[in-house]
Amino acid sequence: MKWHSKVLFFLALVLLLAGCSPAPKPAAQKAKEPEKPADPITGQKAFYQMYGMARQWAPDVQVLRVRSIPISEVKSAAGASGAWEATFVSQSRGRARSYTCSVVESAGNLHKGVFAGLEEGWSGPRGQAKPFLVAAVKTDTDKAYEIALKKGADYAKKNPEMPISFILEWTPQFPDPAWRVIWGDSVASSNFSIFVDAVTGEYLQTMR
User: Fold this and answer.
1) CB neighbours of 89 closer than 8 A, spacing ≥ 6?
2) Strands, E, within the chain: which ranges?
């Protein structure tokens, strides 16, 4: 057998053996890690996410109200809530519009992320609350909660399981917009709340 024939025979044998080799085993699939539970979000953080979308709707938007929304899927904690709602108004449009910011899908037409509600007519304040500039939201709800907890320590100690909710408004009661830290799900169902200045972060008043 000539040398080149030997070479061809050797190559053919190598290819044959390679073809008979067992196919490599696929890498074991990594076990899917369970989805991490969503964390609640503070009012200021949620507010600025909603403001970013509201400003696309109307460049001259002002804030009328911000409130926390309790949801069963995410437990509120230390000034943070699973969902928030902010109502903005536009003088140029003569309209008002509410936005929601939620960390999960939930009942009550709450969707994960920021979503805009329907527009409504607005010709000016209908109650005591009046619109204010976005720059006034300097104090976050975790800070407001911390201040309220110190001022309402006795009440909080007696009612450790009571839910805490938040409303931000500007009324004639105070010179600046204020966070109202409410022991209870709403103002109507609460007999104890504390006001904290949203601009300076200072304690303002206790309501019983």
Assistant:
1) 61, 62, 64, 95, 96, 97, 122, 131
2) 41-42, 62-69, 80-81, 83-90, 95-102, 113-121, 164-169, 178-183, 193-197, 203-207
Of all helices (H) and strands (E), which one includes residue 158? helix 153-158
- Report the C-alpha gap between 62 and 153 in whole angstroms: 34
Report if pTM > 0.85: no
Note whether 139 and 196 are within 8 A (CB). yes
Backbone angles phi, psi at 13, to 5 degrees: -65, -40
pLDDT in tens, 52-102: 999 999 999 999 999 999 999 999 998 999 999 999 999 999 999 999 999
d(CA 144, CA 75): 18
CA torsion angle 52 54 56 59 (round to 10) = -100
Better pLDDT: 85 or 127: 85
Indicate the SS3 state at residue 54: helix
User: For the chain, which residues make up each domain, given as ranges?
Assistant: 41-207
